[in-house]
Write the structure tokens for this entry.
Amino acid sequence: MTSNVTDSIVEWDKLEMTVRDVVGREPICDMHTHLYPPTFGTPVPNRTGRVNASGLMLWGIDELVTYHYLIAEVFRVVPSSQLPYETFWSWPKQRQADHIWQYLFVENTPLSEACRGILTTLTRLGLDPNEKSLSAYRAFFNHQDPDEYIDRVMELSNVKSITMTNAVFDDNERNRWLSEPTIAKDPRFRAVLRIDPLVRNYPHASEKLRRWGYQADSKPTPATLAEVRRFLSDWLDRQSAIYVAMSLPPEFLYPAPTADPVAAAGQCVLAEAILPVCAERRLPLALMIGSSLQTNPALRDAGDTVSKGDVPSVGRLCRNFPNNKFLVTMLSRENQHELCVTARKFGNLMPFGCWWFLNNPSLIAEITEMRFELLGRTFVPQHSDARILDQLIYKWGHSREIIAGVLTEMYRRTARTGRKLRLQDIQRDTTALFSGNFEAFLADR
Ligand code: FIX
Ligand code: ZN
């Protein structure tokens, strides 16, 4: 009986080529981005800067080059003692981009991951990455239609689904949803209810809830918690959100120290409102732990930093809320091993991504190898965290390459034992890693 191709055994000397081919062709479900469809508005460049500057769909060369990662990096080359932060911020977006291009790409070799990413993106778009100015790139992007360009970028990056971050406490985001109920009816995008302030600073968040018509006291009484649950239900329905998400500071502890009333209030809202609503709807809660916000406020979005979080708190949440599903990513490299071991203890914990300051080749390789060794393939290796649409091209191009290399090494280790590897094994594992594990975790009732 002739076996079909997928049943064929992959020979040792063809292993890497086969893995890279399968991984390269695998469509991706990107589970965490800051991307939007054109219905959320898109800034349009003009001579003085941009019109519709509050638009949330960011794309094109000026947004790419002024990505907050690069703003942080350019202030290392031209420090604020030479260029005051406020002067930089006073410039139109295009002037900011020209400044960054000159100092990070022309006068210095673009070596960082964020710089290399832009070059990868330009080259994949068929543009010459050696330009001394941005004018040729601007001419290219000015001829793109945003909606069609989304399809092109998804095709080039082979991303089949983009998961948004919809921060309901952000006025620009919230007001768009309230004014246009069908704003996100774009099949390429799925929504996520992002609610950081509810746990990071509930007393302050409750003032907004009251303004929005929810009888939410600054102290989480039973009546208040019922109103918080109503608020969450209203927005989960409005967004058809596929999960709930929040970033948490490194200091986050569960249980919260009672001596800290703000932390205690946040924990009460987490335990008595957020987790019950998620469990009732079988929605995962994504915890993104370790970001210390605004360590340098003058850098604005670029001003956040990282510190070690408390992994035992994650374990206690998984143990105490067995009917909840937790998607967890931690920002500190030092937290990764503990998180992997904790995931071995709790099936309702799904580690995901190499977040933010970890999204660099050396750390993606280290973390992915550790995860394979401890978890098999039961994790989500990456998300893009893209803020600018075109970034999908490089963030996934670079990550596919690294993950394929680590996966090849894992298969080599298995093959050395004498276990035969079939093409269908590689295909099944690759689909699980790049979409299946996440989709199954969402669907798990
Ligand atoms: O909290 C988050 O979702 C972070 O990913 C962002 O706030 C951060 O600025 C980012 O985009 C990192 O890549
Ligand atoms: Zn993010």
Q: What stands out?
A: The mean pLDDT is 96. Residues 164-351 form a domain with the TIM Barrel fold (CATH 3.20.20.140). DSSP finds 18 helices and 13 strands in the chain.
